Each structure stands twice: as structure tokens, then as C-alpha cells.
Amino acid sequence: MNIHEFQAKELFAGYGIPIAKGIAVKAESEFDNALAQLPDGKIVVKAQIHAGGRGKGTFTDGFKGGVHVCPDKSTARETASKMLNNTLVTHQTGPEGKLVKTLYFNEPCAIEKEYYLAITLDRAGSRPVIIASTEGGMDIETVAAETPEKITRVFIDPAQGLQPHHKRSVAFGLGFSDKAQLKQLDKLLTGLYKFYWEKDASLVEINPLITAPDGAIIALDAKVGFDESALFRHPDVVNLRDLDEEDPKEVEASKHGLSYIALDGNIACLVNGAGLAMATMDIIKHFGGNPANFLDVGGGASEEAVTEAFKIILSDPNVEGILVNIFGGIMSCKVIAKGIIAAAKNVEIKVPLVVRLEGNEVKEGKALLDESGLALTSADSLSDAAKKVVELVKASN
Ligand code: ADP
Ligand code: MG
């Protein structure tokens, strides 16, 4: 789960990480009040969307830039009016862009140098890693590809936590030697690691972290993601969730305890279990098809949840065929069959439907589907099912 920059910075402030003062707004009527709380002079206006690259982004009406350093408050107000409720396209949003529903007015910072600093999980080493670079403000992927020597990685033993030598390695990697700055960096790293660890973050990224001419070190941007499996421990974090930023189908699915992942093909997959989902997608690809999504109904979904799952799948206009691939372990094939039948009563299924049921109460499930009179193709094995759905979709095009 991701949050906005302004939310991340509010959390940072609580961990002693220096940020530029800022106020978030959601409507033009809030502009004046927000601007009054910032000092006169330059104002930075920043679009709040769950995607990076805002500075270099362009709005769909041609207005350039999701981050503007404005010379005064009246220019900031005008610029903000152009940005709010406009759609911003960055290299991370996809061509459709993201509607900007929140803006962040910021105090400007004089920048001497921009750095990159992040903490994330190193999956291969099963431990947190601090990633630091002197090349701030750039895409870290580009730095990693072109000048990997400019990236410092410091691995942390999770049992020991952050140690002074970790902080020295980061300081050395970033080229800090001034005593006062080393002290600031030490405090910042301590706060950032504490935040990462306590909040079960999956990523905390500051790009850029800057030094100001007076020597101050400040987090100018903040990107934070949380481990969803740990959200139950953090109701305060769950409160920061912005459903507008998420795929509405994924949100709807999560309300019913289902996991829905949108992809860009045309064959919908309704499965139980993530492993089966992977295998189903692989085999669809093997037979020359492309998955449009996968919807995992999990181990113990109810008939209602399966009905909702079907409705979600059918609401995707890219879906040209559906493959139901269920292995009933705990799940009864009867529940799946009833869910499909109930969904078909609500929403007309206009695309080919291939069903492969196996396992617990498979006979009863198949019998229910046969009696229902639904137009579907049944399949006996995974490869048979995948082959059939790919062929049917091709034939219908
Ligand atoms: P993004 O990474 O999405 O483009 P950033 O928050 O990193 O957005 O902003 C882009 C650039 O705008 C930064 O690299 C920095 O140069 C400048 N910038 C951002 N916030 C401020 C600020 N408060 N004062 C001065 N410059 C800023
Ligand atoms: Mg940035």
C-alpha cells in the first residue's frame, strides 16, 4: 500500500526527519488559507499522485510539470488552479495518467546538491538494505544501469538493527565529511530506519535528499510503501489509504476478501490460490494467449464472494474470454459452480467461458453447471482448459 508524499512527510516529521514545511489542499477554496500559513515569497506547488517523475510529467491538456517553483503566492495560486483536477502523465503513470485530486504547497528550499536515499528489503539477502547515491533527482534505475559505482548499498542484520558503522558507510558513500552534516545525517538515518522498521514499510525513498547552502540536510521528496500483510498492525497507516489512487476493481475485490490483479491481456482467470494463478497464466501464455487479470478467490470463499469475483471480472472491457480454473481442496467445486450461476443471472456473460473444476465435490459442481443451461465449455485438465480458452477467444475475434 502506497501513500502520498505529503502523508509520508508528515510521518517523517514525527521521526525527526527534516522536511520542507508544506500544506496539502483538495479544493481551490482551500488555497488562500493554506498559502497564508507559508512565508511570503517563492512557493512550490506539487501534484500528489502515487507515481514518481511528477516534475518531468505533463498534464493531458498540455500544461507541463507536476512540480512548480513559483515566484510568489499569486503565481502559485494560478499554477495550482491549472494543476488541480487535471490529469498528469509521468513515466510511471502509464499513458492514461492520474487525476490530481490533491496538491501540496511547499516552502521552497535552496538546493546545493541532490542525493538519493532509500531503505527497502533486499529479498535475496532477507534483510533491509540502505541504498544511497550522490546522483539524486534522477531515476535510480538509470543510475544503477549507467553508473552503478555511484550507488552505495549497506545491508542491515535485522536482529542487530542499524549500527553506527552502517551510518558511517552511508555518509562515506555520499561524500559527507563536515562534522555538523555527519551529525544531521546520523539523526536522519536513525529516524528513517526506525520508521521503516516500526511501520513495516516495504520502501522508504527520498529522492532527492538535499543539502542547502547553509549545510542543512532536508528530505525534499518522499515515497513510502507498506507491507500489506502487516497492515493489521497499523490502523493509523490504513487510515492514510487513498482508494482514488488504486484500481477500483482491486479495491472492490479486497472488500470481499479476494485478490484481483489487473494485467494487460484479454483472458480473465478465476482461480484459487496464488500458485495456481501463476501456473494458469503461464499455461495461457504457453498456448499463445494473454491474461487480462487474475482473480484469486482464495481457499474458503463463499458463494457470494465468487459471484462478486465474476462480476468484477466481467466489468473489465478488455476481457474477451474467461478461464475458471479451480482445484477444490478446502474450496468445494459446488460453491464455485453456484457462484458462477448466480453471477450469470446478474450480468450477462457475452464472452467464451471455459471451466475446469477438479477436487472436492467436483461431480456435484459439474452437475450444477450442466443443469444451469449456461453456455460454457468444460475442460478436463489445465492444458486442455488453456488451449480451449485461447482458441475460443481467437475464433471470436
Ligand atoms: P518527482 O520525483 O515526482 O519529480 P520531486 O518531489 O522529487 O518530484 O520534485 C522534483 C524536483 O523539484 C526535485 O528534484 C527538486 O529539484 C524540486 N523540488 C521539489 N520540492 C522542492 C522544494 N520544496 N523546494 C525547491 N525545489 C523543490
Ligand atoms: Mg522525486
Automatic annotation (TrEMBL):
GO terms for cellular component: cytosol; succinate-CoA ligase complex. It is an enzyme of class 6 (ligase). One of its GO terms (biological process) is succinyl-CoA metabolic process. Its cofactor is Mg(2+). NCBIfam families: PRK00696.1, sucCoAbeta. Succinyl-CoA synthetase functions in the citric acid cycle (TCA), coupling the hydrolysis of succinyl-CoA to the synthesis of either ATP or GTP and thus represents the only step of substrate-level phosphorylation in the TCA. The beta subunit provides nucleotide specificity of the enzyme and binds the substrate succinate, while the binding sites for coenzyme A and phosphate are found in the alpha subunit. Belongs to the succinate/malate CoA ligase beta subunit family. This is Succinate--CoA ligase [ADP-forming] subunit beta.
